[in-house]
């Protein structure tokens, strides 16, 4: 498979491939958005234990924060709900200064 094809792959297909390769994988799913959040509910980002990722939950606004949390989720084995928005103290740090809020459910998958 070419690099371009891999880059355009469905995140859930990538997760299945990574799991079959024996990698630890976390799945981040947008569960709710408000305002100008750039990705709709149901969007996915998959992250492996080394921080490699595929997909998007915010078009780049919060991916770095979600990836960092994913590494912790993989180590602890415990899912968590992440919320980002302009009313949140992390809004300026993660780039949602344009407005909106996003809720992302992050879970380890086997």
UniProtKB/TrEMBL annotation:
This is XdhC family protein. InterPro entries: MoCofactor_Util/Proc (IPR052698), XdhC_CoxI (IPR003777). Residues 18-85 form the XdhC- CoxI domain. It holds the Pfam family XdhC_CoxI. It comes from Tianweitania sediminis. Signal peptide: none annotated. It comes from the Bacteria.
């Amino acid at each position: 498979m070419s690099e371009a094809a891999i880059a355009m792959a469905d995140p859930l297909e990538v997760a299945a491939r990574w799991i079959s390769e024996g990698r630890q994988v976390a799945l981040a799913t947008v569960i709710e958005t408000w305002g100008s959040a750039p990705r709709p509910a149901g969007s996915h980002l998959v992250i492996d234990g080394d921080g490699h990722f595929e997909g998007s939950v915010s078009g780049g606004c919060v991916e770095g924060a979600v990836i960092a949390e994913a590494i912790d989720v993989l180590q602890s084995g415990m899912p968590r709900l992440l919320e980002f928005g302009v009313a949140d103290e992390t809004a300026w740090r993660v780039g949602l200064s344009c407005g909106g809020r996003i809720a992302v459910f992050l879970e380890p998958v086997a």
